Structures are given as structure tokens and as C-alpha cells.
Amino acid sequence: MFKIMLIDDDVPMLKFLQQMMDWDQLSLSLVGSAYSSVMALQIFNEMLPDIVISDIELPHKDGIELGIEFKRIKPSVRIIFISCHEEFTYAKRALALNADDYLIKDELTVVQLEQSLMKAIKAMETSVDQSEELSYREQFQRNYDMFKHSFYLKLKDGASPQILLEYAKQLDIHWEHASFMSAVGYLSISSSLQKYGYRDIPLLRYGIYNIAQELARTYEGITVFHVYDHCTFILNYRHSLAFNPHHYVQIYLEKLQENCELYLKVQLRFLIFSNNVELEAMNTALHHMQGDKFAGYYHKDLIHMVESSETKPISSPANAARQQRLSEMVTAIQAGQREQVMALLDQVIQTTASDTLDPAEFIAEYSSTLRYLEMQSTKLNVDERYYAVLESTRHIEDTETLLRLKLEDLLESPRSSSASKARDSKLQEIDQYLLQHLSENVTSVDVAQHLFLNPSYFSRYFKRMTDENFTDYVHRFKMKAAMQMMEYPNETIEMISIKLGYSDRTYFTKVFKKYVDMTPGEYKSKLIQ
């Protein structure tokens, strides 16, 4: 028996629809009725109906917007729209949503509605049949990247050659020869930031993987794996004097570089490892490759050949000079001395490169310092996406570019200091008031009255204290609360927007994107990942 749900803000019409049909006779179970978009979303999330009959003209969120949300939650849901007006615009939008029918209320009859319902039921039954007929191969292709990543993990964990070759065969990877060699490719952050933002880096990396994978189809023996912040390339080849595997891989990487510059306008950096191993030893080779991830950190060439005898960067405890330079930089940032900050950064980069210090230590040292400084500023929150990109840099130019970006950001941000304790105390009182009135539309007049201050004076005082107007401050505060609420799976975006006093979800999404640089849906997806 299929489940059906009714939505109409006209309560008499809703009751009329409930009584209009013998639902059981049509093998339908009426699981819910709603007279608002908020209630409709709650019921839909709980009951996940198979068919929805909805009015189009609803307050806050119209029926078509609701339909889009329903399709996102349950793509197989069938939707029948009803409306008082025979407007082409509505009909066109309903058609774009692949609705089963668009009915006019004044012309609605039992026969007409029954025909629409039978059409929806038939579509669902056909869909079920087609789903059951999906071949294993079709399902496999949908999850190919996931299976391929699983194969890479087995390879890295040292599974037996027999298991690996069987798994490879299922993935249409044909490793027919005894010899293997590997390489890795990283996105050049400094080149990509000329055209993109650092928030685009994960998407760019996946785009590079797709280009690399497509190109590998024309280079026999090369398999590409997408591993978080880089691509790993494995060449399977027949060892002979007539074939130079390093040259072959280099030609492939140069072509990949050319394609990425053409299609994405970015550069890559590559490390080619001078290993010639059998399948049994590939796990060891991959672990060594992971350990040598900074092998090209101080080299200028885009394609670097890593020799087994190559000198590793020096790991050294923080000395007095380094600590003094870091302390001077923090002081200069807090004082807003831009020229001094950038001069110190130049010295840091020059010293780090000349001494070939351990890149992991260098990055960690400055990452933690920048986090501290950012937490002291009046920003909304620490942007973990920036630090994820910073900590994934594999060349000193990329690290330097990202450090300059964040230092410029910090120099432009209002800074806190020991002289601002009174301001902090007043802000805490304001924050406490906002927390107690989260679901309300709090204005500067409300807070001014709470603090027994003149509203005009409070507005000027608040602007001087925070370097932003009160409305922006409230939105930032509420978006921070929204981000915390989204960490709980049961909290829907609709419910969060209502709890924070945004009755219109579209407006809530607009505000969220303005202050967090992504939509609520994108942020929730990031949390799940």
C-alpha cells in the first residue's frame, strides 16, 4: 500500500480532499495532512509518503518549492499539484519538476483526481520494476570511484597479489606485467588562487582527477587514484631495455599539465619515484611515497624525480631565533603593522628555504599561530577549510601564498586586546540577551532598552566597539548558532531557521551564505563528509 499526504492552507479544502476519495480502495494510506509548509516538511520527513497532493499557493514556501525539497529528500516521490489559477507560469514550473499532474480546484472531480492518482501509482510501479531490473554493472558504475578507493586501500594495506589482481579485474584495471612504478600529483595552490578561492580547492582537485583518469585511457598501463589532496599514478609495465617507464610517465604528466592549464587554468606539481617494484612490494612503496610527500617542497621544477638517496628536509627543534621572529610577527599583526609583518614573512620564507627545514613542522608552527590570532579577532569563526588547504600544501610557494592571504585577512580584521576588557564584558551581556531571544527579531532598540541606554547612543557606541553595525552582528551571531545546531542530524534546516527567527527559509539561506560563504545544505553536507 502506497502512502499519500495532502497539503493545502485552506482548511475547508483540506478536509474536502480528505473525504473526497476512498483511499483504501485505491490501495493508498493517508498518512498526513498539513496546512503550512513548515508542518508539511515535518510530516514528510517523518512519514516519507510516496504521493503528495499539494496546493501551489502556500505562504512562506510555495508548493513547487516544497516539491523541490521533497524530491531532494525522497527522489522517487510523486507529486500532484492543485491550484485556483490556470497560470502558465505555475504549470511550466510544475512540468520542470516532473510533477504527475496540475489540476484546477474549481474543475476538480473525483474521476479526475482518481485518474491522476492511478497515473502516479502506475509510474511508481514501473519505477520499482525498472529499479529491480538494474544490472549489477550499472550499480557498480555508479559507485566506481568508491570501489576504486577501496582497491587503493587494499593495495596500501598489503593485500595478497591474488586478491589485488581479482579486485583490479572487476574494476577493468588490467595489471598483466610484473613491474610497477608510481608518481603523485598535487594542485599548485599559488597558481589556482590567481583565478579561484581556497574554498574551491577540493572541487578543483576532483576535477583534476577526472581529467587525469580520462587521459589515462590513452596511456596503457597507467591507473589513477584520487587520494584526498592528491592523485596517485601507478604504472604497470613490462621491464625491458627498450622501454623507459620514467620517460613514459613524464610524457603522460606533461600532457596532464597541459590539459589542466587548458581546461581549469591551474598548474600541477608532480613527484616521480624511481622505484621498480613488484605487486607484493607496492604497499611498502606507497608508504615510502607518503613519507616523501614533501620531497619537492623546495624544488622549483614542476616535475621532480625523487631519488632514494635524496636528502630529506631537516627536522629541528624551534630555536631562539625562530621563536623570536614568530613573536615579533604576532606583535606586529596585533599592532596592525603591515609592512613589518610582510618583511618578517619574507625573512621566514628565506630562512626556511635556505635551511631546508622540515615543511611539516614549519606549516604546523604557523598554522597554530594563525589559528590563535584568528580566534582573538572578532570574526565569526575559524575557517577550517583554509587550514585544511594550508596543511595540505606540498611546496613552499603554496605555503607562502596561503600565509600571505591569511595575514592580510588578519591585518584587516578588528583585533582584541587587554585594553578592551570593558568592551568584552558589555559584548558578553549583549550575547547573553541574544541567546535568550534567539527566535525573535531583536533590534538595536531592544538591546538599548535592556542596557538602559539611549537607542541612538547605543548604535554609535556599538559601531565603535565592534567596527560593524548591530544588524550584521546579530546575523553573524545567529549563523554561528545555526552552524552549531547543524551538527545534530535531527535538526532540519527548516526547523533551525524557525528557531532563529527566520520564518522565510529562502531569506535564511541568503543570510547564511553571506556570512558563512556556503549554503546551509552545503555546510550540512560538509559536516556529513
Give a concise summary:
This is DNA-binding response regulator. The chain has helices spanning 11-20, 37-47, 63-73, 88-96, 110-133, 136-142, 144-157, 161-170, 189-192, 201-216, 245-263, 282-291, 320-334, 338-355, 359-376, 384-390, 396-412, 421-436, 444-450, 455-466, 470-485, 493-499, 505-516, 520-528, and strands at 2-7, 28-34, 51-55, 78-83, 101-104, 179-187, 222-227, 230-237, 268-273, 303-306.
Task: Write up this protein.
This protein is α/β, with parallel strands linked by helices and about 525 residues long. The chain has four domains: about 1-135, 3-Layer(aba) Sandwich (Rossmann fold), CATH 3.40.50.2300; about 140-305, Alpha-Beta Plaits (2-Layer Sandwich), CATH 3.30.70; about 320-410; about 420-529, Arc Repressor Mutant, subunit A (Orthogonal Bundle), CATH 1.10.10. Helices cover about 55% and strands about 10% of the residues. The chain has helices spanning about 10-20, 35-45, 65-75, 90-95, 110-135, 135-140, 145-155, 160-170, 190, 200-215, 245-265, 280-290, 320-335, 340-355, 360-375, 385-390, 395-410, 420-435, 445-450, 455-465, 470-485, 495-500, 505-515, 520-529; strands at about 1-5, 30-35, 50-55, 80-85, 100-105, 180-185, 220-225, 230-235, 270-275, 305. The strands form two sheets. A five-stranded parallel β-sheet has the order 2-1-3-4-5, with helices on both faces. It has a five-stranded mixed β-sheet with strand order 7-8-6-9-10, with helices on both faces. The radius of gyration is 30 Å and the shape is flat. The two termini are about 35 Å apart.
